[in-house]
Amino acid sequence: MTAPISIYRHSLATRLMHWLNALCLFLVLMSGLQIFNADPQLYWGSYGANTDPAAFAIGGFPHWATLPGERDLATGRRIHFFFAWLLVVNSTAFFAVSFASGHVRRDLLPSRAEIAPKHVLHDIGEHLRLRFPRGEAARHYNVLQKLAYLGVLFILGPLILATGLTMSPAMDAAFPWLLNLFGGRQSARTLHFIAAALVVLFIIVHLAMVLLAGPVRELRSMITGRYVLPPADTTAVDAAAVDAATGRAD
Q1: Domains of the chain listed by start with CATH number
Q2: Is the peptide bond before 68 cis (omega within 30 degrees of 0)?
Q3: pTM: predicted TM-score of the whole model, two decimal places
Q4: Which residue from 55, 151, 194, 246 lies 20 to 30 Å from 42 (Cα-Cα)?
């Protein structure tokens, strides 16, 4: 039986920033629900007064999903703003490291062949059948992972930041074009909520894929930096490629 091969996948910097981002995102989302519960209705345009019709309304989120658990808007706002800015700073550092190391260009940008409709549909079909990449293919992100990561990093993340700033009167006074860009604070709040909900969906799918693909191997790679291909997969791995991969960091 072929011995398992250990591949260096994630640098120490990437791992530390990943876990800090995960913690910040968890706290930001829960405190955001506390803020949302203060007025669990969403509006569009110039609407937002008590007598205006809501575009979307729910009864609010349960206390176990909010931070703090009891109704406390002031504390929720303090937690939300602190960890939101920590998330921005840490994400900016992650971008800098990822671009400087070539991680974005090398590992996240899909090739022209990968974004071909036939290839994307094939990957979707494989995931629906719970057939995950093996061997050499397991060393790299598949096109669905690449598109999801790029969407969160370069679309949803900046949108959440920009709409969050638009809801601040002080930022609106300094940068009034933000209100024009998003059509008012209430529209920005609605877009903020939608983008955050899409990030939650990404997290749910991400965690589900980790569990289905092998939680021990996946978590170990994000803790130690090394991803271990099981014996059944190593036959498809080229020795020279493995030697090159073991010296590579994100």
Answers
A1: 5-245 (1.20.950.20)
A2: yes
A3: 0.84
A4: 151
